[in-house]
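Make up an example, fold above all:
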Amino acid sequence: MDKEITIEVGAYSLPIVGEKANGDCVFHHTTPDFTFLCVIDGIGHGYRASVISKKLCEYIKTHLQRDIQSLIANAHEYMLGEEGAVIGIGIIENQELTYGSLGNISCRVINEEGNSTLLTTDGLLGVRKRTIKIDKKTLSKGDLILIHSDGVNGSLSYQENINYHLFSSEILSKKIIKQWGSLYDDASVICVKVK
């Protein structure tokens, strides 16, 4: 295993073309013990979706914890009666990424060896709950973690196209949204460079 890693986090979110209100929400927070990463996508787009995603994001911020399954289950109960949202949560702790989602928020780890996608769980927060699958990945220097909404094209071979070593996480997150974000959906990404 590599010596202790450090991380650099960047995030960017852009509403669908023609809208000022963004139905996606990104949030990351670093404590002395772990880093918390979260991408939320409220159903649809525009003002109503932004109300849903902001409400959920505020809940997550005030109930921050390491137990992803419990946090998503509690958030589902909190959001009952809303139109729905999808959520992906990553925790980086002790050189390991733990990831869980409800809905189509994608998480991938890219490095020189390739591109691995972590497990997701189908569902819709506040509407259709499932038992959250948790996936784990040991991190090494040189890894790039991307957590993104479905407004980012997930079919591309990122490791061949983004030259991620050349950019900071903040610039890289903007570059990904500008190059691979959809014109027809809100698009959000959190980029984490492992150093």
Remarks:
- The chain has one domain: 7-194.
- The longest helix spans residues 47-62.
- Strands lie at 7-14, 24-30, 35-42, 85-93, 96-102, 106-111, 114-117, 134-138, 144-148, 187-194.
- Helices lie at 47-62, 68-78, 158-161, 169-180.
